[in-house]
Design a protein that fits this description.
The protein has about 240 residues and is of the alpha/beta class. The chain contains seven helices and nine strands.
């Protein structure tokens, strides 16, 4: 039977913190997501960035049962099951999610093990239930994203703020959903967020627009993804 779990790509024996990366998917699909699909591969440079920021932490890729969110919110269901079933040595978990994974980390981010939530181009529909997140919470979205809505991300952040949760929002000019045009900026956002969580910062309410830099093609980012995947293969699998 297909079960959710975590593919660990960095796993120091004494690690008590897990940085858990949740990839994107589809609105509807019950197919099994394979390890070589683009949404999963796109997260590997973020694993490298997280290791730079926190070399003593474990780093893992969330593995869903299905490629889609589906009517039951399967990605969030799987993430909650993983958070419940992780080995006891992982005392805190930092969640980083892209697209559907961004929706999952928000939906499951109130779990007591979670120490921070970062949503990258998150899929946050207008009627998405408000989650009782604890800071730090950061959202980042490309202004040219046509797959998920940067306006929806800002709206959800403002709802969290109205409920008393400080949220940082980064908007990246000239960037699309695949996060390939400004790859180094995305890596910086991940690195900075992980450092913020591990430093014990409580988070602050702020917005930042990253101005557009020189036009970049996707080829350097694709090469970076391939290199990161080769440098950080799966070391251990946890199934719950």
């Amino acid at each position: 039977m297909n079960r959710p779990g975590v593919d660990l790509v960095h796993n120091p024996p004494a690690a008590t913190t897990l940085i858990l990366l949740a990839h994107g998917g589809y609105e509807h699909s019950t197919k099994t997501p394979g390890p070589w699909r683009p949404p999963i591969l796109r997260l590997h440079p973020f694993a490298t960035a997280a290791r730079t920021a926190a070399p003593a932490a474990a780093i893992g890729l969330l593995r869903y049962r299905h490629r889609g969110w589906n009517a039951a919110g399967d990605a969030a269901v799987d993430l909650r099951a993983v958070l419940d079933g992780l080995p006891g040595r992982f005392e805190r978990v930092v969640l980083v999610g892209h697209s559907m994974g961004g929706r999952a980390v928000v939906a499951a981010g109130a779990h007591p093990r979670v120490a921070g939530v970062l949503g990258l181009a998150p899929w946050l529909p207008v009627d998405e239930p408000l989650s009782a997140l604890r800071p730090p919470v950061t959202f980042a979205h490309g202004n040219d994203d046509r797959v998920t809505s940067p306006k929806g991300t800002v709206a959800y952040a403002n709802r969290l703020r109205a409920a008393g949760t400080p949220v940082t929002v980064h908007l990246l000019d000239g960037e699309t959903h695949a996060m390939l045009r400004r790859a180094e900026d995305w890596n910086t956002i991940v690195t900075t967020f992980v450092q913020e969580v591990l430093s014990g910062a409580v988070g602050e309410e702020k917005d930042r627009v990253w101005p557009a830099g020189p036009a970049r093609g996707s080829a350097p980012a694709v090469l970076q993804i391939a290199w990161a995947r080769l440098r950080m293969p799966v070391r251990e699998r946890i199934r719950v």
